[in-house]
Structure formats: C-alpha cells, structure tokens
Write a structure and sequence with these properties.
With about 425 residues, the protein is of the alpha+beta class. It has 14 helices and 15 strands. The strands form three sheets. Strands 1-5-6-11-10-9-7-8 form an eight-stranded mixed β-sheet, with helices on both faces. Helix 1 runs antiparallel to helix 5, helix 1 crosses helix 10 and helix 5 runs parallel beside helix 8. The N and C termini lie far apart (about 60 Å). Bound molecules: histidyl-adenosine monophosphate.
C-alpha cells in the first residue's frame, strides 16, 4: 500500500490567493527598495555552516538547534541559510565591495530554513524580504531602514507597531552584561535550567525567555549603561524617525541573533498571535570585521513574508481583462486557437482554449469559476458566418460579432480601452 505523499512538516506550497499576495508584496517591496536606492542580490540557499555559526553566534538558538545541516561527499559542512544577512555580508567581503566604493545597499527576497517547532506563523521553510546597507554609521540610515520596512507594510495595507531599543556597543555592553549577570545570579534559584545555562554564555538572551522573562521585571536595562556615543546615536535615531513612524520603546528587546549593536527594532502586530513579529532588524557595526572584512558599519532588516501575507486583505476579485475562448466543435479548434492569441496580444488574460470535449454548460461554469469576465464561443454556426459569440459571464448577455472585430468589441465592452465601436450582428 502506498502512503499519501505530503509536504515535509513545517513546509507548505505557496499557491492560489496566498501566492498572489506574495507577488503583490514582492512588487511593492521592489518599488520601495528602488526608491531608497537599493539593488537586488540573490545569494545561495546553502553556505558553509561556519558562516552562520560565526555570524549569528554559536550560542544563539538558531545555530544551536535550528539549522538544517549536511555534509557533502568531501565531508565539508553546509547549512541551509536560516536568514539572509550572513550570506550578504559574505558577498560584501568576498567581492571586496568596500574598495569599489564606500556605500552599498542590497536587498533580497527568498526562502530561509529553520528547524523550529512548527506552529501558526512559524515554518521550517519561510520567506523573507530584507535589506542590508553597508558603509554608513549615521543614525539617519537606521531611521531610513525602519521607514523602508514601514513603507512596504503600508504599501500592502498591513498595520504594525515598531518597538525599538539600543544594545550599545563593544565599549558599553560589557558593563551592562556584568550588571545583568550579577542580577541574574541573585535570581538564580527562581530560573529555569535553560536560563541558568544561557546566563553563563549570553545573559541578554535570558530576558527573552518566555518562562522567565516576566519574573525579571526589575532587571537592569541597557539604556542606563549606554556610553555617550551610543546615547547620542539612539536619540538621533529616534528624532530622525520623528512622526513618520510611531514607535514604542521596549528596553527589553534583545533579538535572538548575536550580531547586533546599537539600534534594534521589531515590527509587531497584535493580529498574529504568539509569533507576533512581522519584521525585525538593526545595526551590526562589528559583523563585517568579525567575519574577516574591513571594519564596516551596517544596518538592515528582514520581513517575514508568510506572516505579512496572512494579514493582507484578499486580492481584488476578477480582473477586467480576463476572457476564455471555448471551441464548441472540432472544426472550430483552429479558429479558436488563433482568436485566443489575438485577444492575448491585445493585453488580455486568455488561458489555453477550452475544448469541445466537455459540455458547453460545464465549460461556461468553469470559465466563471476561474474568474473570467467573458466567454468567447466558437461553433460551426459562428465559423460559417465568420463570427464569434461573446458572453458576458456576469450579466449573461450574449452578442454575436464579426470575428475580426472581437478584440475591439471586448476592449469597448470592458471599458478598459477606448476604441471605435465594433459592428454587432
Ligand atoms: P529574524 O528576527 O530572525 O531576523 O527574522 C526576521 C523575520 O523573519 C521575523 O520577524 C519573522 O517575521 C520572520 N521569521 C523568522 N523565523 C520565521 C519562521 N520560522 N517562520 C516564519 N517567519 C519567520 C533576521 O533574520 C535578520 N537577518 C534580520 C536582519 C537583517 N537584521 C539585519 N539585517
């Protein structure tokens, strides 16, 4: 007995209305990125595992337990990319982009892979749209990164709140880490085993813990430890954002990946349930250097496509310029084929000709279901008279017109294009 084939756990196909929403989101994002001067990059879906362990942090959840890894026949270790930033940074370093000019702005869209426990809004293969901006340390660039993400979400009609925080820099974060560590030690007996383990390697991540976070309301916050430079950066970032994007300060926002410094942010929605982050990102001024490149400031974000499309309103109903050609008898097949091509050439959506092998009634029902506005019927009668019967699938009105005037008739009837009236029969 054969078992039914299924998509792997945590994955799914993008099709139908969801796929249409993805296409719309991608096209809005491309237009926004173009306005901000970004160009597109596509990096491999897999990279050397080391790239991710060195950039995301060996003790981050993603590297510790969520990567899909494999070895090739030469025993080299690879991982499916769990996010887009590391690959783009690798590209920046490998191509010596810093010598070719100071500033580089790149955006990407594509699938990412994390072996997380699947739940609503959390998949093992999910899609991101993101950008990375290299070579500028000004807080205005952080603000523009947030604005670009906001422009995309607004462009597809999805509401959000932006939470922001500063994680400080190599100079001030160690002082904060120490203070937080001391505090966590004083709470040790109340914490879960997982948090006690995290405490030793990355105390900031304990604040992120679902179980323990709420018990740590009086934990010290990074804000009070910021050095003067980080404080000024943070203030300017917030003032550049101004009223264009309304933000909430979240002093406990720490992010799950280790490469961040200074600005971090998350776009959240209260319509998403537990997985409420629509997009996230921040500054990572030390990462390029850490991976072997020249010291280069950078900032970026990534938006979770799956989550954003789940909040996008349904696609607009049927397009105006959608017609179906139905051949009613074999001798009409050739003419129907030519007619479909002629209507398509005028910019209409016309699927391959519906054949005479099924009943006309069923073909008309299928045409209406598929979203078509008009059915173009060609049978032996029409063929003899060199005409076509055009049925409006909404009003059910039907007219016979000269076949040579069919395109002009459709253009006029649909109100899409202005053209001379076609002669009706
Ligand atoms: P991240 O917060 O790990 O950041 O992911 C960004 C967004 O991807 C999340 O806010 C969420 O919408 C979506 N996402 C993450 N994991 C899943 C999942 N398992 N299923 C569905 N959606 C998911 C990054 O990836 C950074 N690379 C962002 C960045 C770019 N920072 C600087 N530059």
């Amino acid at each position: 007995m054969s078992t039914k084939l299924k998509a792997p756990k945590g994955t799914r196909d993008l099709a139908g209305a969801e796929m249409s929403a993805v296409i719309r989101l991608e096209s809005v994002a491309r237009a926004v990125f173009r306005r901000y001067g970004f160009s597109e990059i596509r990096t491999p879906l897999f990279e050397h595992t080391e790239l991710f362990s060195r950039s995301l942090g060996a003790t981050s959840d993603v590297v510790e337990k969520e990567m899909f890894t494999f070895t090739d026949r030469g025993e080299r270790m690879f991982a499916l990319r769990p996010e887009g930033t590391a690959g783009v940074v690798r590209h920046f370093i490998e191509q010596n982009l810093n010598v070719q000019g100071a500033v580089h702005r790149l955006y990407y869209m594509g699938p990412m892979f994390r072996a997380e426990r699947p739940q609503a809004g959390r998949y093992r293969q999910f899609w991101q749209i993101g950008s990375e901006h290299f070579g500028q340390s000004e807080p205005s660039v952080d603000a523009d990164t947030v604005r670009a993400a906001a422009d995309i979400l607004r462009g597809v009609g999805v509401g959000f709140v932006v939470q922001i925080n500063s994680l400080g820099c190599g100079a001030c974060r160690p002082l904060y880490r120490k203070a937080l560590s001391d505090y966590l030690h004083s709470k040790r007996s109340e914490l879960t085993e997982e948090s006690v383990k995290r405490m030793a390697v990355n105390p900031l991540r304990v604040l992120d813990s679902k179980a323990d976070g709420p018990k740590l309301g009086d934990a010290p916050v990074m804000k009070t430890y910021l050095c003067p430079e980080c404080r000024v950066h943070d203030e300017k970032f917030r003032s550049f954002l101004g009223s264009a994007v309304s933000v909430e300060e979240n002093p406990r926002l720490v992010r799950g990946l280790d490469y961040y410094s200074r600005t971090v942010f998350e776009f959240v929605s209260d319509r998403l349930g537990a997985q409420n982050a629509l997009a996230a990102g921040g500054r990572y001024d030390e990462l390029v250097h850490l991976l072997g490149g020249p010291p280069t400031p950078a900032v970026g974000f990534a938006l979770g496509v799956d989550r954003v499309v789940s909040l996008m309103a349904g696609e607009e109903k049927r397009p105006q310029n959608f017609a179906v050609v139905i051949s009613l008898a074999e001798p009409a097949d050739e003419e129907a084929f030519q007619l479909a091509e002629a209507v398509r050439s005028a910019g209409w959506i016309v699927p391959p000709v519906f054949s005479h092998k099924k009943k006309m009634k069923n073909q008309l029902a299928a045409a209406a279901d598929s979203g078509a506005r008009y059915a173009l019927l060609l049978g032996e009668d029409e063929l003899a008279k060199r005409t076509v019967s055009i049925k409006n699938l909404e009003t059910r009105d039907q007219k016979q017109v000269d076949i040579s005037a069919a395109v002009a008739y459709l253009q006029r009837e649909s109100g899409l294009f202005h053209s001379a009236p076609a002669q009706e029969r």
